[in-house]
Amino acid sequence: MTEADGLKLENVGTEIRVPAGALVVKQGEPPRCFYVVVSGRLQVFRETAEGIRTHLTELGPGDYFGEVALVTGQPRTASVAALEDAVLLEIDKAEFDHVLDHNPQLARHIIRQLSHWLVKGDHRLEQEVVHQAKLRQVSWFDYLLMLGLSLVLALVFNLYNDNQIPLVHGWGEKLNVTEIPLTRALELHRRQAAVFVDARKANFYDRRHIQGAINLPLLYFDLQYPMFQFILEQMGWQDKPLIVYGGGFSRRFDHELAHRLEEKGHPQVMVLGGHYAAWEKHFPVVEKAGSPPPAMPLGIPGLIEWLPVGFLGLLLIPPVRRSPYLAMAGRVVLGVIFVEFALSKIMRPGVFALNVVEYGLMPPWGVNLWALFLPWAELVVGLFLVLGIRTRAAATLIGAMNLIFIVGLVNAILLDLPINCGCVGEVGEPVNWWKVVKNVGMLLMAVQIFFYDRFLVLDRGGFIWREREI
Amino acid sequence: MKLRRLLWAGALAALFSAAVWGCGESRTPFAGTYRSEAPYAGKGHVDLILKEDGEGLWILKPVTLRFKWKVEKGQIWLYTREGGIIIATPSEGGNKLNLDMSGTWHPSCPVERCVIFRRISGGSG
To answer: Mind telling me how many Å the CA of A338 is from chain B's nearest CA?
Structure first.
């Protein structure tokens, strides 16, 4: 015997046929009727103004609905739609009240049912609160997972990479190059008794160098040494002492170049002593107000990078700013950008290490470690974002990386360093204020994701998406 | 569930495309032997050999230097041992290479730092 049979409703109401997909009751409508399911299946759901649908339950033959609104007199609390062709017994409010007045068994049953709904509602609410709390949790484990995974992958990949680099550049190597004090070097320069060799890349040399210095970039030593030798021969400077300068904060170039020149048999090679940038103040310099290095067109990756700039405009619209759909789109955009950043650098950490050196912010011991670790961190965190895993922690890490990039870029712009960004691709990406704006856009995207990301998330408590059954 | 599967498939497809994208272009059209038009550093002509497997040789007798190379956006990138990049721009159907020795990307090869090579053999250019 079904519930409806026990309620003695056989003499009231009208049988109606409902086709599959039809809405029988709409949430928010004033109540008119009470329904008993004779055949077919129906779905009960609630939907918010933003279109977020919560699936409440399914009804089959013998179940009934619509009693809550009729008893309370409030608008419908949920919508009911037919999942397949269904037959319902429709009882209007007058009939329903009449049946209720004369059927204490039905009244008790409805009270019991309403109480059951209340208890179930409380339970559901508790579940949801717990779920949301878990969703919003960010634990140290999340960071440890992503950073640890990146570090392990970076180290293992470097072991098997054809282009592997040492963890710390020059670790264990003793170059034993003599340093010449600044005042003594200045004296030799004044008397033209030494050849000054600039170890930096050509664009740095072009911008500013010691008067009369020859450029021999360490990076192209093997290719350009014959030309350097040729110049010495042409000028008759073979026997003059060589004074190498042009090391940055990381002192990457000058000591190593001096060592390589000694290996080539030059008898007197020295490195300019004191602070690495002291020559700019003490020596006569040749300066050329140059334009920034040319930028190689990046094609599609360059266009994708503009999306975060558009995002800045969207943030001005409050309802859009809080939208979980925007957060989801932001995750995909940021994830793709960071994966793309990573893939352009992962194969050749040595090239990226030189980009890091050019920014002049990293101490010598940190350059290679950073060059190995960062691309893998970008890849892992980017993937976590796209796949919806630990998205709040991933967004924090992406935001932190963006902050570091912004500091590096602003520093390079203010110091007028003739460098390329090294963010995506290996050459030719400009360092300018637009690049800063793009990174600010990405940073804000990460913040928006942190606060409003809700959908298509694989997190504690399972996978969450739009039509989630609570 | 269908949406979830679609999402994963989309993500994997995007990653695969990105990975393939990052692999660079075919080396075949530019593989071959090239010789500098003018003597380099007063010593002699430089022979530049680009092998299909990505290995390259820069020969200025008696010294031979090894490097790696790839093709990116129609240009040839030579990677030095220290991590520097020299970009060569092919022209005349790949028979001429302009090597920008500055180590910085330029839309054209700066005259004072440009070494021009001509193809001697190999390649499909």
So the answer is: 11
